[in-house]
């Protein structure tokens, strides 16, 4: 860049710092003030017109027959519960193996982790295995 171009660039930046920033702020303030009115003009009118009665919640209720292929949902839920129980049992078995093998090889940290893995997997198996009864209880009591 030549010296003349560099001087012009410095002069332009200094001018922007002095007055250009003020113009930019005034422009932003004008847009902020006038933007809601312009948005209101562009917004479509609602159809139908809202009534004063409000929303009729009595017309809304759970209806499994309105869901297309609701049997697919139940199959997926049963498959997820089955995989959850299988993985919890696998975790329980892996924890038992680690708990039993750890002291044989002198790795007591593995034995401790195996014990905690068995507790966690047992709790997961209880929660996953009883998920349907927990959900049924919550739906009837709440």
Describe the structure in brief:
Helices cover 74% and strands 0% of the residues.
Fold and architecture overview:
The structure is a single chain. The protein has 142 residues and is mainly alpha-helical. The chain contains four helices and no strands. It has helices spanning 3-42, 70-101, 108-129, 131-141. Helix 2 (70-101) packs antiparallel against helix 3. The longest helix has 40 residues, at 3-42.
* Strands, count: 0
What general outline do the C-alpha atoms trace? flat
Q: Biggest β-sheet, characterized?
A: none
Q: What percent of residues adopt helix (DSSP H or I)?
A: over 70%
Round the Cα radius of gyration to an integer and report it.
Answer: 34 Å
End-to-end CA span: 74 Å
Keywords:
74% helix; mainly alpha; 142 residues; 4 helices
């Amino acid at each position: 860049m030549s010296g003349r171009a560099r001087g012009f660039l410095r002069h332009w930046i200094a001018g922007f710092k002095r007055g250009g920033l003020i113009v930019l702020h005034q422009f932003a303030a004008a847009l902020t003030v006038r933007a809601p009115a312009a948005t209101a003009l562009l917004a479509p009118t609602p159809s139908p017109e809202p009534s004063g009665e409000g929303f009729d919640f009595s017309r809304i209720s759970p209806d499994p027959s309105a869901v297309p292929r609701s049997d697919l949902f139940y199959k997926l839920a049963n498959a997820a519960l089955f995989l959850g129980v299988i993985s919890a049992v696998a975790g329980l078995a892996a924890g038992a193996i680690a708990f039993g093998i750890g002291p044989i090889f002198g790795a007591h940290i593995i034995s401790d982790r195996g014990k905690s893995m068995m507790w966690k997997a047992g709790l997961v198996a209880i929660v996953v295995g009883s998920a349907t009864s927990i959900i049924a209880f919550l739906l009837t009591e709440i």
